[in-house]
Amino acid sequence: MQFQRAFSYAFGTETKIAEVVFGLVLLAMLVAFGQSAYRRRKRMEPSRRAERNVLELCYVGLLAVVVAFDVFVSFSANAEWWHDPRPDMTVRVTGFQWCWDFRYLGTPVNVSARCAGGPIPTLVLPAGRPVRLQITSDDVIHGFWIPGLRLKLDAYPDHVNTVSFTPPKGDWVGHCSQLCGLYHSEMMFRVRALPAAAFDRWVHAHGGPGRLVSTR
Amino acid sequence: MTATRRPPPLARPATRRADRMEWLVSTDHKRIGLLTIGTGLVLFYAFGALAMTMRTQLARPDQHILTNQQYNQIMTLHGTGMIALVVTPFALGLGVYLVPLMIGAPTIAAPRATLLGYWLYVGGAIAIILGCAVPGGAQSGWWGYLPLSNATYSPGTGANLWVTGVSLAACGMLIQSGTVAWTILTRRAPGMTMLHLPVFVWTELVTCFMGLTAFPSLLSAMGLLAWNRVHPANINFWNLLYEHMFWFYGHPVVYIMFFPFVGCVAEVLATFSGRRNFAYKSTVLALLAFAAGSMAVWGHHMFTSGQVVNDYYSLTSNFLAIPAGVEYFALLGTIIGGRLRYPTAMLFGLAFIPQFLIGGLTGILVGSPAIDYQMNNSYFIVGHFHYTLLAGSIFGLFAGVYYWLPKATGIMFSERLGKLHFVLMTIGTNVTFLPMFALGMLGMPRRVATYPANEGLNALNLTATIGAFIIGCSLLVFVYNLYISNYRKVPAPPDPWQGHTLEWATSSPPPRFNFTAEYPVPRIRSFAPLLDIRERASQAAAGGGDRAEPGQDGAGDGGAGHGGAGEEAP
Q1: What is the ipTM for the molecules in this complex?
Q2: 20 to 30 A from A82, CA-CA: which of B31, B43, B442, B529?
Q3: CB contact B376 to A (< 8 Å)
Q4: Which of A1, A141, A151 best tests the B interface by mutation, with the highest count of B CBs <10 A?
């Protein structure tokens, strides 16, 4: 799945670099403590050398290389994240205070709920088939976040954010990630990706056509 | 106004009740600085108590000790307050107090404007607190994103007061940025060239530059928000523009809340390593590059808006790792090769290094859009910026506070209590904020009033809450230290730590105009003038007659009349 792949690639690579940097800084601090203890024991004065221009320049060069690599990782992960497969179907996701509405475009299927205190809606998707989400809002800015899929995009009123992906089979929890008022914390949803045939049965049971994705 | 009310030039008047009132209208930069920092400290405790209230609510899943409305108001006040009313005023208040002393100036430039800045900040604090405290008050977080913060979704006076308060405090900080920068640029003592400025003063200068560019953007954003609240038409037209204007302030302000504290740490590390700041010129260049770059990264707060050019902001954000890396190099280079002493100030300064690094490195991670699409607005971000602001900046602040309090008050503070404060605060900080990274990965959104029991978040949240209360205890130790040390009143010598910079050449506390005939400004040959004097003295003592130059220079020093300061150094 493109979001998980892009996330794991960027997070895995950059975390390793970060760990090395953190380790080197701790090591440098230990060196400082050790040298200090040595100087104290030998009654040596602190070093008066306050500049090492060549070393400083080399260090900046090294930093620039690491940063350039980080930028490369970031760019390629971003391109991977936004990889846009041709979708088999489109769902319009609308956030509102304080729940979600999922409309399956081209069909009469519509899933919604009340969230706060009541049931939460389920976004049902066909596993292994590319889908497009059009994310928008009816009132304030909400955040459409499926932590398990590493997918998050904000839902703006009067603006549509579009993203396409091919979900694997599975069940996930979704949250609203953008503060949206009183019941922000309860504005949750479920995501379920069913095999194509099961998905079509589900669509049919909810008033949709008999076959939406399983014939392709 | 009148000549009789003005204190005599060389000494403070004896403390009387009238003198206490004079504190509030004094144009002495030291009093304005202490007022700013002191007010910030009181508010730090108040908004910290709010954080503990929120952590109490979040200790267990599905708790409703606070209503959602109360939670959102408290969260808004904690966020807005800590940023606009605590850490930013700390950053500039330190500059107001220390900069004139460190550059050998008798006063701050434009003292009345500086005082006005303080009172605007106080006015802003009152308005923001009222705005979040009234029933149905401001509840849209410290960003106040439109349209949630407009008159339709946040009706009532609370949010209006919030807008007013944020604007007032921004005006106050804008003015103080101006006067501190002006002081540095025009009031330096003879010999105090730009490349003889202490590192702390450089951090203040770039902080002021960022303040002068960032606060106007915040004021524009607040103007847009106010206009939107009065005329609710054009709804949704300005949503994204508001985000841009807000973050054009919001990102530089992150560094405004960081640089002065890295400056504190740099001074503390140099002093207690007995060695001057390493890679000074690189540090200065890095600070300037960092400040310039800070104005070009704001869009990385808006990756999830889907409406910014990801690669550009990812590139500029990653670029900042270079100047940040140079600053770290300088800090580490200072302690390597030193002979370290470990008083409380040094412990806070040393803890700053790895702790801020966690904040910085996680910041670079979320500068990648593919990572940000998971972490944005999750507890990972909460952990990230608390590592920069609390584990970084506030630790730097306490390093500075323990370092300069004897100078400011003339009293030595208890080292034993200071170390207890340090140990508790370090444990508490890490116990609170490390679990938050995991919480964010697991999918806990930020700014939630409660969370469900079945998502595996319970134990980590409880841990974070326990940590928050440990931080609370450590801060009580600090208050007790202030109280008991003030009661014992062990007098502080002018230079208790063998400092490097000019403020240690004058008395503790410094006289009204900072330097007198008894405590003159010593000769300034580098950014560490007092260390120069000590090094020359030890060279002259050790070298005797075998090297001519140091001896000659030493004679020159005597003639320049720094002798008083030299003798004061223990």
Answers
A1: 0.96
A2: B442
A3: yes
A4: A141
